[in-house]
Amino acid sequence: MKLLTILAFGLLCMAYPASLASQDSSGHVLISPEVKTVAIDDTFSIFLAIDTVELVKDFLVDIQVDTTIIRLDSCKRVSTFFTGPSGAFTYWKDTVQHFGENDSAYVYEIQGSIFGPGNFVNGPGELVRMKYTALGYGISPVSFRYYEFRDTLVDPETHMGNIIELDDALDGQVIVCPTDQAIIYTSPGQIEFLSEDGQAPDPRTFSVANPCLGDLQWEASESSDWFDLDTYSGTAPEDITITVDISGIGSGFYSDSIEISSADAANSPQYVGVTLEVTQAYLCGDANGDGNVNVSDAVYIINYVFVGGNPPEPLASGEVNCDGSVNVSDAVWIINYVFVGGKAPCDVDGDTEPDC
Fold first, then answer.
1. With contact defined as beta carbons under 8 Å apart, do 128 and 88 qualify?
2. Whole-Å CA distances, 237 to 181, 191, 265
3. Bridge partners, 234 (sequence order)
4. 247-251, 290-294, 335-339 — which is least confidently predicted?
5. How far apart are CA 17 and CA 160, in angstroms?
6. Do 256 and 227 contact (CB within 8 A), yes or no?
7. CATH of region 2-177, choose from 1.10.3720.10, 3.40.50.300, 2.60.40.680, 1.20.1560.10
8. Hey, how many other C-beta atoms are within 10 angstroms of the C-beta on 201?
9. What is the DSSP secondary structure assignment for residue 277, as one 8-state letter?
10. Comparing 281 with 230, which gets the higher pLDDT?
11. Cα radius of gyration rounded to whole Å, the chain
12. Which pLDDT score, from 0 to 100, does residue 88 have?
């Protein structure tokens, strides 16, 4: 079967020359349904689908799940969506893939192609039916670790073809219920806040629910000094509001979590991640933070670059020539601005508008 697949690729690559070109095709690859609830030992199907993506002829995706909770048993193309093409195939394997120097994962790799000159599929529709077995209770992500869609068949030797640029990949989840217990389900599982120019971000809300049997009495706990919850206990389903306090918080990135626990739940505790990014308004060129741009800022940058002095705060305030780094050329720029009427910091083209 695998040999026949490779031969088919080789033959069709003669008709569809390899290329590095790409085309925009607004749309997503997604897991459908987004959330699937099943019981232990159930066999069930979820789908690899596309929405408004067009001219799909070849695709490859790497999908990661929690293999202690669910296991992929088979993949089949959805015949109703592939009406018309003279031939198509879907092939899958489980494998370990490397996604970075220190990032490897056990994934299900699914590959599909549509044969025949001029044959494509356009979304929306379901490409592949994935049949799973529920092995243990809990919540398993169904996450895209890699995806690649093309409007030509891929040359098996060069791995080249016209790439379809998608908007994004939309992950899914599978909830496996115990036979006689509740499950803690939080949505979303990650909350992000952004504070700009000293303004406190708006409150955000997440929910605690129980998609399984029984009642769920829950408690929340956190140790953060920069956010609070409007309630710390309750009965699911319930919404919890997070309010951020930025007083005394400097510029930077902060990360914490909320623990949701329950004696009623088989998967207690669960965690909701919370992040906060704080950015402060600054005057470009004011490297020492005194509110003015003068020769002392050039000296400050020189001390930072050559003798290990403190960096500009924020660092971008000392990056005045828009070259992407803080170095001696930024100090020279400030000196030219102050003493000989050179261009203002961050105004590279001299139009009085900042360029970085």
1. no
2. 15, 18, 13
3. 218
4. 247-251
5. 9
6. yes
7. 2.60.40.680
8. 18
9. E
10. 230
11. 27
12. 65
